[in-house]
Specification:
Layout (H helix, E strand, L loop, with lengths): L1 H7 L10 H19 L3 E5 L3 H13 L3 E5 L25 H9 L7 E4 L6 H4 L4 E5 L3 H13 L3 E8 L2 E7 L4 E3 L9 E7 L5 E5 L11 E5 L13 E2 L1 E4 L2 E5 L12 E5 L3 E3 L4 H4 L13 H18 L8 H18 L7 H10 L5 H20 L8 E5 L21 H16 L2 E5 L3 H13 L6 E5 L24 H12 L5 E4 L13 H5 L3 E4 L4 H14 L2 E8 L2 E7 L20 H5 L5 H28 L3 H5 L4 H17 L5 H26 L21
Parallel strand pairs: 1-2, 1-4, 2-3, 4-5, 17-18, 17-20, 18-19, 20-21
Antiparallel strand pairs: 5-6, 6-16, 7-15, 8-9, 8-14, 9-13, 10-11, 10-14, 12-13, 21-22
Keywords: ATP-binding, Ligase, Nucleotide-binding, Ubl conjugation pathway
EC number: 6.2.1.45
GO molecular function: ATP binding; SUMO activating enzyme activity; ubiquitin activating enzyme activity
């Protein structure tokens, strides 16, 4: 029934965006981009762990449809990273059908289907974006040639052990309308010179941080010719000034005005896969020799073509054959003078394996590339991306110590060996937070077998809201208002019933040290933070330092993310360094001289808290706490007066007995904020006021209301 319901949904261009579900994503993508995504049909070929990660991410974002294609039967190797495949699917169910069952549940607005037929041109023509994973090279080139010629965006991606690759082809003249997604910067103008090379100086309140070479002007007094002009090209001269060309014919600048950055789009040209491999354009995302990774993946295609299989884990004979393939590739294309044979050997040793963290990483990157292809927002990869984590490979693994035993961890054992797998299973880890990052961590741990012979503890005091479902993929509509920690733990157990996991619903802090005791921390082997506030992070860092525990710290902000790995006696702790303190806004600026949007937002927040929180809390405390007056006397006289005045107003002079009383109160507040206070300010500081130095009072960052 669910399959029929989801398949039948048709999203057209007039469909309204579900703001309750996509509220967080809308802040990043915007309504127009979301509407573009809702018209986009995506094909995902290859449902290994990487493929299902990509499909999951794309479905959650709200495209029109996702079609899955992979007729290969589920293998034990798949279970280490495909979180929607189960042991009972091995050798009985195709990877596409095994994955589809759970992918269907992620987003009711996205049609999810599985295709078992051929990938012919008629079928490919139905899609705006085609994503290939775990696909033979000749098939990649065939499909890419058709997509390139017919305006279909194409992405190919692969993970082999600890090595990852991605390739993008969005055709010729691909238009990017917003290169970075950052909001356009706005600055207040302090002066504009009247000369051949006119110089604009902004107030010293904020240094220039322009990502574009074009700006527009507004609200300028005097040199009004600049107001409303088409975007003007500029040249930045310093932290507070830039030139705009000849201003001699303009009126003299008097005062005021704003300059706003104009984000200009750009056009990008992509080569086909066949043309791009010979002279690859590789994104510089690492300090490593990336051309060696390019050779390794091309050598793998050659190895598969020659032997019709992947190299066996840590097999020396296969590694020697792989190195010869790499030498042949390098001889054909003349990529480098020296081939890194040690790297090629490690690639061959681990190519058959797959691990969940690598799939999660590249699945997130490629999922974002799909959004770029659908919308033209954010600059896409051009054209190859290579990444590896060879530092994670243990020393001394041999073919004998990574034997595959038809277990769900075979894919990971093929990379890390049996000894490290046993160590992973014996861990006792504490996950603090079960939100977006926490859900991803639990999924990865379930695939890895973390704590299956040890334990995993997870705590989160929050309950599930509708807006969480767009990012926290372990939750469903039926889970709304349930505890995040308990629901996430149950979902992880469904992925891997062998996990030993216990959920808590308490915050971490001094007030819960009877629950999370010294003995509790003393029995752990590590902590992973998935928090959203600094205070809790600092507390957990303190507990990790006290107990000599490793700490995995991470956070996200829109499309940005950060991680910090803290290892006792090796790295600094989380609390050892701190971001610079945020700039505070003086109260006089907030109440009398706001000049930036941040000022008005902060004023509104402070006013809201004063009207609808502080007074109410004081009234409740006065009515319920017998020692309220005694505690009040400990405050300074000004604070005492404010609190008593607020309580008297709420209970006596402005007490509301009806809805009409509430309307009257609101109307009086409006008159106070938006009429009386403004008139009083202009009475104290008239618009034509001149300071003792002869300059207008209302100039610079002071803007007359």
């Amino acid at each position: 029934l669910l399959f029929i319901m989801v398949e039948s949904m048709n999203i057209d261009e007039d469909t309204q965006i579900d703001e309750g579900l996509y509220s967080r994503q809308l802040f990043i993508m915007g309504h127009e981009s979301m509407k573009q995504m809702a018209k986009c049909n995506v094909l995902v070929v290859g449902l290994s762990g990487l493929g299902v990660e990509i499909a999951k991410n794309v479905i959650l974002t709200g495209v029109k449809s996702v079609t899955l294609h992979d007729n290969t039967l589920v293998d034990y190797l798949d279970l280490a990273s495909n979180f929607y495949a189960a042991p009972e699917d091995v050798n009985t169910t195709s990877r596409a059908n095994a994955s589809k069952r759970k992918l269907l549940e992620l987003n009711p607005y996205v049609a999810v289907t599985a295709h078992e037929g051929s990938l012919d041109e008629e079928f490919l023509s139905k899609f705006q974006v085609v994503v290939l994973t775990d696909t033979l090279f000749e098939e990649q080139k065939r499909i890419n040639n058709y997509c390139h010629a017919n305006g279909i965006k194409f992405i190919a991606a692969d993970i082999r052990g600890v090595f990852a690759s991605a390739f993008t082809d969005y055709g010729e003249n691909f238009q990017v309308y917003d290169v970075d997604g950052e909001p356009a910067a706005t600055y207040m103008i302090d002066a504009i010179s009247q000369e051949e090379k006119g110089i604009v100086t902004v107030t010293e309140e904020a240094r220039l941080d322009l990502r574009s070479d074009y700006v527009t002007f507004s609200n300028i007094e005097g040199m009004t010719e600049l107001n409303g002009q088409e975007p003007t090209k500029i040249e930045v001269l310093g932290p507070f000034s830039f030139s705009i060309g000849d201003t001699r014919s303009y009126s003299a600048y008097k005062k005021g005005g704003y300059v706003t950055e104009v984000k200009m789009g750009k056009s990008m040209d992509f080569k086909s896969l066949e043309d791009a491999i010979t002279a690859p354009k590789i994104e510089d995302c690492d300090f490593k020799d990336l051309i060696q990774r390019h050779i390794a993946f091309l050598a793998l295609h050659q190895f598969r073509k020659s032997f019709d299989r992947l190299p066996n884990p840590y097999n020396k004979q296969d590694a020697d054959a792989f190195v010869k393939c790499a030498q042949g590739v390098n001889n054909d294309f003349k990529f480098t003078e020296t081939l890194d044979e040690d790297l090629m050997q490690k690639f061959s040793f681990t190519a058959m394996g797959n691990i969940s963290p690598m799939a999660a990483f590249l699945g997130g990157v490629v999922g974002q590339e799909v959004l770029k292809a659908c919308t033209g927002k954010f600059t896409p990869i051009q054209q190859f991306l290579y990444f590896d984590a060879i530092e994670a490979l243990p020393e001394g693994v041999t073919e004998e110590t990574c034997t595959l035993a038809k277990s769900r961890y075979d894919g990971q054992i093929a990379v890390l060996g049996n000894e490290l797998q046993a160590l992973v299973e014996s861990q006792k880890y504490f996950l603090v937070g079960a939100g977006a990052i926490g859900c991803e961590m639990l999924k990865n741990w379930a695939m890895m077998g973390l704590g299956t012979k040890g334990s995993v503890f997870v705590t989160d005091m929050d309950t599930i809201e509708k807006s969480n479902l767009n990012r926290q993929f372990l939750f469903r509509n039926k889970d709304i208002e349930k505890l995040k920690s308990e629901t996430a733990a149950a979902a992880a157990l469904e992925m891997n019933p062998n996990m030993k996991i216990k959920a808590f619903s308490e915050r971490v802090g001094p007030e819960t040290e009877l629950i999370f005791t010294e003995e509790f921390f003393g029995n752990l082997t590590g902590v992973c933070n998935a928090l959203d506030n600094i205070a809790a992070r600092m507390y957990m860092d303190q507990k990790c330092v006290e107990n000599r525990l490793s700490l995995l710290e991470s956070g996200t902000l829109g499309t940005k993310g950060n991680t910090q790995v803290v290892v006792p006696y090796v790295t600094e702790s989380y609390g050892s360094s701190a971001d610079p303190p945020e700039k505070t806004i003086p109260m006089c600026t907030l109440h009398h001289f706001p000049s930036r949007i941040e000022h008005t937002i902060q004023w509104a927040r402070d006013t809201f808290q004063g009207l609808f929180r502080n007074v109410q809390e004081n009234v409740n405390a006065y009515l319920s706490q017998s020692d309220f007056v005694e505690n009040l006397r400990k405050q300074n006289l000004a604070t005492q007066a404010d609190i008593v005045t607020g309580i008297h107003s709420a209970l006596v002079t402005e007490r509301a007995y009806s809805f009409e009383n509430c309307v009257t109160w609101a109307r009086l507040r409006f008159e106070e904020f938006y009429n009386n206070m403004i008139k009083q300010l202009l009475f104290n500081f008239p618009k034509d006021l001149i300071t003792s130095s002869g300059a207008p009072f209302w100039s610079g960052t002071k803007r007359a209301p």
